Each structure stands twice: as C-alpha cells, then as structure tokens.
Amino acid sequence: MKIGIPRGMNYYNYYPFWYGFFTYLGIEPVLSSPTTKKTISRGSELVVPETCLPVKIFMGHVLDLIDNKGIDVIYVPSHQSIAPKIYNCSKIRGLPDLVRNVVKRNFLLIEPTLDKSEKNQGLYEYLYESAAPLGITDKKLIKKASKAGWEAQNNFTAMLRTGMNFHKAMNNVAKGKFINAVEEDNRKYPVNVAVISHGYNLYDSRVSMGIFEKLEKLDVKAYIPEHLSIEQMKKGFPVLNTNLYWANEYEMTGAAGYYLVDKNIDGILTLTSFGCGPDSIMIERITRFAKKYGKPLLNLTVDEHTGEAGFITRLEAFTDMIVRRKRESIIKSFSRQFRETKEEKLPQSQVAGFKQ
Amino acid sequence: MPGSNYKRKRIVSFPRMGNIHIPICALLKEMNAEIILAPPNNKQALTIGTRYSPETMCLPYKMNLGNYIQALDQGANILLMFQAPGTCRLGNYAKMAEMKLKELGYDFEMIVFDLYGGKFKEIVNKFSRATDNKSITRAVKGIKICLAKFNALDKIEKELFYLRPREKNFGEAEKIYNKGRNLINKAQNTGEVKAAVDQTMAEYKQVYIDKSKEILRIYLTGEFFVLLDPFVNMDIEKELGRLGAEVDRQIMLSEWMGQSLIPKWLRKKETHKERATRTAKRYMTRIIGGECIESVGDAVYAAEKKLDGVVHATPFNCIPEIMSQCILPHISRKEEIPVISLLVDEHTGKAGLITRLEAFIDLMNRNRREFRHCEPKTPADVC
Known about the structure:
The structure holds 2 protein chains of 2 kinds.
Chain A: E1 2-5, H1 11-24, E2 28-31, H2 37-44, H3 53-67, E3 73-75, E4 78-83, E5 86-87, H4 90-93, H5 95-102, E6 108-110, E7 113-115, H6 123-131, H7 139-161, H8 166-175, E8 191-196, H9 199-202, H10 211-217, E9 220-223, H11 230-239, H12 250-260, E10 267-273, H13 277-293, E11 297-302, H14 308-343, H15 348-355
Parallel strand pairs in A: 1-2, 3-6, 4-7, 8-9, 8-10, 10-11
Antiparallel strand pairs in A: 4-5
Chain B: H1 2-7, E1 11-13, H2 21-30, E2 34-35, H3 43-51, H4 59-73, E3 78-83, H5 93-103, E4 109-114, H6 119-131, H7 136-163, H8 172-186, H9 190-205, E5 216-222, H10 224-228, H11 236-242, E6 245-249, H12 253-261, H13 272-279, H14 292-304, E7 309-315, H15 319-335, E8 339-344, H16 350-373
Parallel strand pairs in B: 1-2, 1-3, 3-4, 5-6, 5-7, 7-8
C-alpha cells in the first residue's frame, strides 16, 4: 500500500516521523517531486491570489502526486495546536479542508487533526486517525509505530544539530541511516549569518532560491534555526520581550532572539513569503529589536514572481555591508589598543620597533 | 514615578467599531468613568494607523491604532482592548499597539480583556480596574444596561434592513434609525432604552413602503470588524438597499457579544457559530480561527434558505478569510448560489465597490428571471 505525502508545509518539519510511522505499519510513503515552476503555477490556479506561496506550492504537490505519480491516497494532516492555547496559523489548521474543496480529483484524503487544546485530540488520536482509513485499527500496533516514528524524528533532529545539510539529513532518514559524526569543515568563513525562516520556505530551494549555496559562494556561513534546541530557542523569547503565541513561532522569534544576542553572529537574514500573517508580526518585532541590539538585518520577501537577480544583488549588498562593518570595527579596536599602549608611555625603543 | 501614575485622573478610551461605543460607554459611565472617544472611524485615523503599522498587517489593527493615537492626543490615558486565543492576529493587537504607542512616547495604561477562561468575571474585574470602581452592584447594573443597549441597537438595525430596499423615498428610514440610535445613546436606564426602541419602531411604521416591489435577498457575511463598521465597509448595506436588495446578516453586535460572553450552560438557542459549524460540515470540519467557519457556514445556510446571493466582505490579507475565499467558489458551484468576495483595505475606492455590487445585483436578477421562465415541468428537467 502507498500513501502520498506532498512535499510542502509540514513535510519539512515532520516527515521523518511520518516516514518512520508509516513504514513500520507496512505502508510505503511516496513523496511528490521537488518544487518546480510548474508546481507553483498549477497550485496557484486552485486558490485565490492572496494565498501565501507555501500553500500554493502545497496544492501543486497534491496535484503532482495524483496526476503524475498515480497515488490516490493523500496524507494532509491538520496541526491545530501544539500546546494548550498555542495555535497554528489558520492556513495550516485548515489545510485538509482546503485540499478537499479545491482539488477536484478522485482520491482518498487522510486528514488527522492534532489539537492539544482539546481534550481528546492528542497524539494517539491523531495517529489513529492517520492509520484507521487505511484499515489499521490495532491501537497497540499504532503505539509501537509511533515509537518508530519518534526514533526517525529524533535521529533527524540530532543529525541536523551536528550541522548536517538539511537535504542530506532527510536522505539519510529515508534510507534509515543515522550518522552521528560532526562533519569536518576546515573552511574559514569571514562572515557568519543567521538565516531565519520557516522550514517550508528555507529548504524548498525554489522558494529560497538556493539561498544556502549563494551564501556559501559569498563566503558566508549560514546558521539555521534547526541548529538550536528548544531550550535555546526558548531563551530567545525574553530577548524579544514576548512569549509564544503561534505554534511555529520557535523557529522565527525564538531563533532570532537567540542569535540576536549571540556574539558570533554578524547579521540576520529573514525570509518570508508575501502575505504571511504570523510573519508580518514576528518580522516587525525582530526588526525592531535588531535595531536596538545593533545587528544588521535583511528581510527578503518572496512570492511566485520573485526574480533571482534581485535576490542575489541584495544578498551581495548585505554581505558587503557586514564585511565593511566588521573591518571598521576591527580597525577601531586596533587603533584603540594602539592609543592605549601609547598612553602608557612605553619605552622609546619599543615604539620604534613597532614602526619598523 | 509609579505612585503619581495611580493618582492621575483616569480617562478611558477604546477602539471604535460601528455602534459598539454606545453600550460600552453606558457601562463605563455607570461605573463613573471619564471617557474620551476617538472620532468615528475616518480617513485620517486610517492614515495615521497605516503609518505606524507593519506593511502587511490587517486593516482592523491599522484602524484601532489610528483610534488610539487620536484618543491619546485628546488626553486619554487608559486604553481598552480585548484578546482571545486561537483566533488569528487579533491576539497580538494589544501587545503590538502598546509597544508601538510607548515607542511613540505616549504615557498610558493598556488594559487587556483576556477572554481565555472565566469570561464574565474577567470583564467585571478589568472594568473595575479601568474605572477605579470597586462596586459590584454598579458593575452588574452597568452590564445590564449595556446588554439592553446591544439588543436595542440590533433590533432597530434589523428593521432598517427590511425597510431600506422597500421605502419609496430612499433615506427616510435611515433618518429614523439615526434618531433612534441617538435616543438609545442618551438613555440612562433600561426603561428609557425600551422606550427609545418603541418610539423608533412606531416611527418606522410611518415610512411609506412599496410592498409589491420585488426584493432580492442577500446574505451578508465575512469578517466582523468590516461588517460592523460602516466606514470600513463603505456603507455596503446602504448601497445594497439602494440597489433594491434586502440584507440579512447574522454577525450582529449582540450576537457576537453573547457568543463570547455568556457561558454555554446559560444559552438557550443555538448560537451563530454553532449553526455555522453545523451547516458548514460538508465543506469544512475544523474551526480554524477568525470567522472562517461562519463565512462558510453562512453561505451554505443562505443556499438552504434559498436566498438570492451571498456577499462576503473581508479585509485584505485576513488569514482565516483567505481560506474561506478559496472555499466559497466551490460552495457557490455545488449549492448553486452566487457568491461575491469583496476585499477592503486602505486603498479601496467606493466607485469600484459599487460597480461590482451592481453587476452582482444584475446577475441575481437575471437568475431570478431565468428561473421563472423555465419552471421545471418534470422533475428531471430542472434548470
């Protein structure tokens, strides 16, 4: 039996779990092909223009699974809330309802709901709803499968924390491998930048326009929210003088707060899709506090019309600015040191030696 | 100094939204508060609000911020706002506005009504903090008159919806309504409120109406701020009335208030939200925040009641309403009811809105004519 998982939205956060869970139950998860221009244009046809880019892409992936891969069971979960009164964005909450109404094909939609604010809608109910339409109703088996899912998810998180590339980690998970070795990276980077965004923007190279390769070319080391633990991200909230409101706020506000006070980070890059509701608030807050802490920040907004050239220009300008700033501060600190040593009235011979 | 802040005279203000100031002012006055109201929503408030808001923020926030700034400039120092979890960006309004206004150098206290848990108690507590009035009896009396005014306003508004498209001299009923609204605003106790309603209803009877006129019936649904504020929705009900359509609307002040304040076990009839959840079931099974489920449910309800069309009004970039906008065309096709989505933001012009409404009215008129011409002869021959 096969189950189609669209490569969009929550795929980037929870696919390892779903992979572990479904393979344990003997169901083969099938992914849609990576995002292309066609995916976006086909998805955009289904929804109103104001919808954000990730949702349009998600719709394109659903179509890709049905039309190109011939899958007729599609898995679209709804993550309502992850903790009491901590809700997700409406679009993530109502994703299955949207798919059911706008995709006019014949298919079985599996739409489990995870709602921690309700009493009877926790993880096991969610997993039961995921497996029951496929004929698996053995609750003990589902519990065991959930353990397999957690194992895959934890392996994935651990691999990401060692600094492994996202796609590499995802590939390892899909092969059932776990590599716990910090990769040797002897390259020296003059600039360190934190790239803050949701997973579905960052790791979809069509949306982020291959931002990581571009930064690599500019000699910039990118730090991502996935490098941080939840505890570290929790520390970021008081920095920005706020608390958790959105379910996916950790990777934005939390990570940004943590990196804002991190001395190793020279600047912050945020990537948001046009018209994202939660981001419009979070980015505003991050921008305000970046100003306060004196950290450079570049906000890139993407939609389906964004051109690559403009993207590169802005990245280059941002990097140049950081390099100039860094150089200036180094020169300043050197000259300060020099002045201090002069004021201490060193013996004449030493000053002469310095001149040579 | 924190001490001086406490002793300072408390002047309360809150954001404007249609008629909401009438009952809220009544409650605050009963609790001996001094109130400064921002002027009714206008272009200037919107411009100020837009200047200090993030670019892609939704319209109600921009409007609220404009109201706050106008009120603070007039000397208010206590600002009221409510927030509820699991809605949408609304839960962030108070926090953001407070930060922005403090940054602009205003000195004030923000009192936020958290509608998380115990709602009624929370309201009383926060109102007594805002007004420095500890008397429970006054609070209860205030709430009584407040609720009475909510209901009274809705009653005279509903009657206006009926009269508007039918009256011979357009604008007559509107005048009576405005007069009645002022009377309700001035009323000191529940008896006077009732008298004001009775007087208005009697005056409505004098309006000369054309009973034989064929009237289109439209269901108006969407986001509550847009629906309840005549400036933001550009008098959409009046324009529809002028074009000869009777408006039906479930998002009324009292409905919305009762839904969020009165505990479940005290309610007798099905609330709007419950009804919408029931009717929307075929299309939508989850409550996803905002008024999405209401919009979807109302459209199905309108189709069940065989109304002529649905007008869906929302602010640009409202997260839940984008979802309902995507789903509504599907409902329109399945349930065979025309639906139009109207977006408003700070750049919307009235002329464009009216053109679209006119086209929509034409479409519904045509639908009706067609339906009459080809009355089904056999059950299979349904058009």
